[in-house]
Specification:
Elements: E1 3-9, H1 17-28, E2 32-38, H2 44-49, E3 57-62, E4 76-77, H3 80-84, E5 89-94, E6 99-104, H4 107-117, E7 126-129, H5 133-144, E8 149-154, H6 161-170, E9 173-178, H7 182-186, E10 191-194, H8 202-210, E11 224-227, H9 236-243, E12 247-250, H10 251-267, H11 273-283
Parallel strand pairs: 1-2, 1-3, 4-6, 7-8, 7-10, 8-9, 10-11, 11-12
Antiparallel strand pairs: 3-5, 5-6
Length: about 290
């Protein structure tokens, strides 16, 4: 019997999640239909109330701006999502007495795997751009990687509640700094995670491009930048970072690894290396070595 899954968000037409999930389910031989559905924060409660158990839903991927609002629409939150207050995944579990909607945050695992594959070592000297829902996952990921402190560059410190709550939950020391200081603060960092929306980091890229060639940071000391925004790609900040000699990790890498965790939760099936290969093919990523 066919089951259903979908990615929810607004806007959603750019999402690569359908390509990743469909490729995986086809390789695994699973009859799971996966679609993209445009849902705003205001419409989310009605949408979730309208989901019928008989429709055979097995899971939902959740993207911006719904990651915080979805917490109120599930029966239980497990793992990192429980202490972050931010989820990107809803798994539908049959308890034998009905279907239970369980929230998870697979973004944390997605970030950790993506930057480890780029050679990031333990206890990186780190910076985060943006203080919204995805920054909460970035904070938890940095704590898992061993960071003790992180500078977070935000446009408005009064709107960084999710970042501050996440830092308190995982015991990570943070310093909120103006976004205007980001280029200077990124210089010399082992790892920078940009959680800003597409094109929102263009101003920082311009600052990086204007840094003098004789800047205090040697060309070979620029670290790793993970830009979670992947459309358009390459982003301007990714190009500016690469031109300085830094390593760039595309947001598609994070999307890949968080999707691997979602597929396990939705299907109950292990995701093997050959499945990850076809997922990479579906979005133009190099196959894993």
């Amino acid at each position: 019997m066919s089951r259903r899954a979908a990615v929810l968000g607004h806007p959603i037409s750019h999402s690569k999640s359908p390509a990743l999930h469909r490729a995986a389910y086809a390789k695994l031989g699973l009859d799971i239909e996966y679609s993209a559905i445009d849902v705003t924060v205001e419409r989310l409660p009605a949408f979730m109330a309208g989901l019928e158990a008989g429709d055979d839903w097995c899971g939902l991927s959740v993207t911006m701006p719904l990651k915080t609002a979805m917490v109120d629409e599930v029966d239980e939150v497990r793992g990192a999502g429980a202490y972050l207050g931010v989820i990107n995944t809803v798994a539908f579990e049959d308890t034998g007495h009905g279907v239970r909607r369980v929230g998870h945050n697979t973004d944390v695992a997605g970030i950790v795997e993506a930057v480890r594959n780029a050679g990031v070592t333990e206890q990186p000297n780190s910076a985060i751009l943006g203080g919204g829902g995805t920054s909460a996952a970035a904070i938890a990921a940095l704590r898992e990687l061993g960071s003790k402190h992180v500078d977070i560059f935000v446009r408005d410190a009064g709107r960084a509640a999710e970042a501050k709550a996440a830092a308190a939950a995982v015991g990570l020391s943070i310093h909120l700094r103006p976004l205007a200081e980001a280029a200077e603060g990124m210089a010399g960092a082992d790892l920078v995670i940009s959680t800003l929306p597409p094109r929102a980091a263009d101003g920082i890229a311009a600052q990086l491009e204007q840094l003098p060639d004789a800047d205090k940071v040697p060309h070979d000391n620029w670290g790793v930048l993970l830009d979670v925004a992947y459309d358009p790609w390459p982003s301007r900040i990714a190009e500016a970072w690469h031109s300085r000699g830094g390593v760039v990790v595309p947001g598609l890498e994070m999307l890949l690894y968080q999707a691997v965790e979602q597929i396990r939760l939705f299907s109950g099936t292990d995701v093997t290396a050959d499945v990850i290969d076809v997922m990479c093919d579906s979005v133009g990523l190099p196959r894993r070595v």
